[in-house]
Amino acid sequence: LTAMGESSMDPTLSAPDSTAQQDSLFSMMDVFLISLITGLFTYWFFFRKKKEEVPDLPKMQSVAAPVRDSSFIEKMKKTGRNIVVFYGSQTGTAEEFANRLSKDAHRYGLRGMAADPEEYDLSDLSRLSEIDKSLAVFCMATYGEGDPTDNAQDFYDWLQEADADLSGLRFAVFGLGNKTYEHFNAMGKYVDKRLEELGAQRIFELGMGDDDGNLEEDFITWREQFWPAVCEHFGVEATGEESSIRQYELVVHTDVNMNKVYTGEMGRLKSYENQKPPFDAKNPFLAQVTENRKLNEGGERHLMHLELDISNSKIRYESGDHVAVYPANDSSLVNQIGEVLGTDLDTVMSLNNLDEESNKKHPFPCPTSYRTALTYYLDITNPPRTNVLYELAQYASDAAEQERLRKMASSAAEGKALYLSWVVEARRNILAILQDMPSLRPPIDHLCELLPRLQARYYSIASSSKVHPNSIHICAVTVEYETKTGRLNKGVATNWLKNKVPEQNGSSSLVPMYVRKSQFRLPFKPSTPVIMIGPGTGIAPFIGFIQERAWLKQQGKEVGETVLYYGCRHEREDYLYREELARFQKEGVLTQLNVAFSRDQAEKVYVQHLLKKNKENVWKLINEGMAHIYVCGDARNMARDVQNTFYEIVSEFGSMSQPQAVDYVKKLMTKGRYSLDVWS
Asked: Where are the transmembrane segments (predicted)?
């Protein structure tokens, strides 16, 4: 460029030289322009190509995760179903009821399908009217303090936020609850109300089952009125066909690789041999029992403290959370069922769903042996429900026994009364029924198909993760009682835990477990006072709470008043954690320790009596100290009596009427200042 510039500025250049220079100049300019155009074209070409590819990305994603897989509408159309029964289930009962209703449908020329709301897109409810004679039924259990079950949480969230038009949807709801709880059937009531608000048409009234009474009878009573309402709405009639149809077919494996056989795992095959986090209901962690000691010094009962080692599991927990354990049935009960039915329990088999479109391929992990199924997967200790009796009746060779079973499974008043007295109140489990009906000998595979799944048992954690990050503590009482038939019935989980003796490496001390989060939490500010009420094993979460408050104090934090109201039968027999509580009180962490010994004197004294005795101090802590109240234990009597006592205290010292006092306590609950962790 310098040469060129110099030449152009030289006035003495001759004409030919000037022309040659211009030719050279143009050729260089041409090269530059051509290069520029080529570059621009190349850039445009690639840029345009990228822009064209962008819209393809969502398409590729939609292929990877097709909406159709989560569409129950498409599934119903494909399989010719017109009734879908969704279930919100924590312990399996709502799922069982949903299966029964979906099975009922064929009696009326309809086809039903039970569905887990967690597996489908519930916004498709607005499209259900595309299917002729379509109906959505919801069997919704209420969990905890009016909460949805884990598998219905997404559905609940959607209902709260949805502004969908469900005007073409026909629905019915059956709720499963327990009257001893504050928010009886809250989930069933909410779903029923919200669907109507979104324009859906209710074709039958809300059913409300009460597990504190007779849930099975509540369901049967609702069901026997529900189906005639469905018939009337759709103009159909019962076909007369009964619903004794097998859902699964038996496949016996004579030559099977035992590495492919389930031996008690809840989800992934060999998950107990090759443990991988995260650990949850479908993938429990095998925790070693490092301590198992008896807490009580006397009496007939066995109260125990267990410690589970969760080192290297990455499991995290907070004080107030629950630990779920998967128990095993008593081997003697399992063996007796095998003997009564004349079965080789070590036969390896699979039960395969006859409905190939079903998401549920097996009733429990398969292939497995009958022994494993009856030990780890099936509930053999609770009284069977009426549908099980109905299905089993066909296998009774004695006409009188067959008639008795059918009567108990019927909706007639006499049949309901017989079922209540002979099965429920007598606490007859499946083995007792087989023993007391000698002609009833069903095939073991059909029995395994009918029995409900053995459920995890939940315990309030009795430790703080701040003090015990690698250990979870359980406080429990073994359940054992004599039935009206003279049999000794034992609680599955507590008796199984009782026998978990700490060993160095023994499998007999391993417990499959996971942690379930809770809303039962200490106040955010350590300086906030707490009033804890927990008689019996209800003390469990408060041991964790007090441990945590002691730890906070050691960290130099200002810790508010920590008040405990505890109760037991006799001071010298079942005063749980006596030494620990005395130590916490001596250290000044536990500022008040109030203990009611109910049977150490002529008149029974309970925790609510001690609350009344200290009512002035209780009111001061609530009103001036903004204390948080925690109640743990029996829901049927204790929790209700304690709540009534708080109504009285608030009414007296807050100068309020009874309705105002009730409203005041309810507001404490809403604000998270009155928390319950109760069971019935």
From this structure: 25-46
The single residue of 460, 464, 518, 651 carrying the catalytic annotation is 460
User: Count of CB atoms within 10 A of residue 116's CB?
Assistant: 18
Which residues of the chain are under the pLDDT cut of 70?
Answer: 1-69, 240-244, 504-507
Size of the chain in residues: 680
Whole-number Å distance between alpha carbons of 365 and 264: 8
Q: What is the pLDDT of residue 43?
A: 47
Provide the pLDDT for residue 482: 96
Q: Are strands 285-294 and 303-309 parallel, antiparallel or unpaired?
A: antiparallel
CA distance 412 to 326: 37
The boundaries of the domain holding residue 80 are 72-234
| CATH classification of the domain holding 639 | 3.40.50.80
Q: Is residue 65 in some structural domain?
A: no
Q: What tokens appear for 125 in the block?
A: 């409810």
Q: Which of 455, 478, 503 is the last residue of a domain?
A: 455
How far is C-alpha 582 from the geometric centre of its chain's CA atoms?
37
Nearest Cα to Cα of residue 479 among 489, 469, 487: 489
Spot the catalytic one: 350, 632, 634, 675.
632
Residue 286 near residue 276 (C-beta atoms within 8 A): no
**Do 102 and 212 fall into the same domain?**
yes
Same domain, 665 and 622: yes
Task: List the structure tokens of 159.
Answer: 């209902």
**Rounded CA separation 481/300 (Å):** 11
β partners of residue 457: 325
pLDDT of res. 237: 87
CATH assignment at residue 340: 1.20.990.10
601 lies in the same domain as 625? yes
**What pLDDT is attached to residue 561?**
98
Contacts of 120 (CB under 8 A, 6+ apart): 70, 71, 72
**What is the DSSP pairing of strand 530-533 with strand 628-634?**
parallel
Domain assignment of residue 9, yes or no: no
pLDDT at 35: 60
* Residue 63 lies inside a defined structural domain of this protein: no
Strand partners, 594: 565
| Structure token digits, residue 2 | 């310098």
Residue by residue, DSSP assigns 21-38 as: HHHHHHHHHHHHHHHHHH
Total structural domains within the chain:
4
User: CA–CA separation, 361 vs 29, rounded Å?
Assistant: 75
Nearest-angstrom CA–CA distance, 118 and 122: 9
**Same-domain pairing of 403 and 333:** yes
- Co-location of 469 and 450 in the same domain: no
What pLDDT was estimated at residue 32? 53
Are 546 and 510 contained in the same domain? no
pLDDT tens track for 620-642:
999 999 999 999 999 889 999 99
pLDDT (0 to 100) of residue 135: 97
Report CA Rg, the chain: 34
Which is nearest to 120 in space by CA: 83, 162, 158? Answer: 158
Q: Is 218 a catalytic residue?
A: no
167 is catalytic: no
Q: Which structure tokens are listed for 251? A: 């496949």
Q: Which of 582, 577, 578, 584 is nearest to 553 (CA)?
A: 584
Active site residue 679: yes
Same domain? 98 vs 152: yes
On whether both 306 and 173 belong to a single domain, the answer is no
Q: Is 632 a catalytic residue?
A: yes
The tally of CA atoms less than 13 A away on the side-chain side of residue 123 is 9
pLDDT value for 613 = 97
Could you say which of 167, 199, 234 is where a domain stops? 234
555 assigned to some structural domain? yes
DSSP 535-592: -GGGGHHHHHHHHHHHHHHHTT-----EEEEEEES-TTT--TTHHHHHHHHHTTSS-E
